[in-house]
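Title: Prediction job returns without error message
Component: structure pipeline
Severity: low
Priority: P3
Assignee: unassigned

Description:
Job completed but the reporter wants confirmation the result is attached to the right record. Sequence as submitted:
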Amino acid sequence: MAIALRLSRGGAKKRPYYRIVAADSRRARDGKYLEQIGTYNPLLAKDDEKRVTLNEDRAKYWLGVGAQPSDRVARFLDAAGIREREARNNPNKAKPGEKATERAEEKAEKAKEAEEARKAAEEEAKAEAAKPAEEAPAEDAAPTEEAPAEDAKADEAPAEEAKADEAPAEEAKADDKTDEKTEG
């Protein structure tokens, strides 16, 4: 008969309460046990002394006769100083899964592209800022009176172009009306 030190669940639904028991390892989790050696109430605060109660003498006895503690009970025994638990090492525990890794890579690529775009915009802004500074002294050095006259001519030109554009459109409408009359 293999003896296990393990938890046996009690309490109501969503209100767990556990007994720390020495039981035959082939029995059901909440079934018949040999002896209760403590209790565990996960609803209490972690620093509460009543969260885990353990009869240390009986725990030492059962360990002495070959009982094997479950992982959780081994933690309790280690905290009580009864039996040291060897540290486990799972290097893959902290690694993200495949999809999380893919999302992180996509996010890193987008951040890199955004950074490159920001740098390019900064370079362009610096170049634009440098150009007007170089050209501005040349314009200010030779102001002429002809410039306002050129501006006035430029203002009149778009109006003339607009009139020229409207004229062919009106002729096209007139042609459409004559075509309709001849067809009908």
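Comment from assignee: result matches the submitted record. Helices lie at 56-64, 71-80, 98-141, 146-183.
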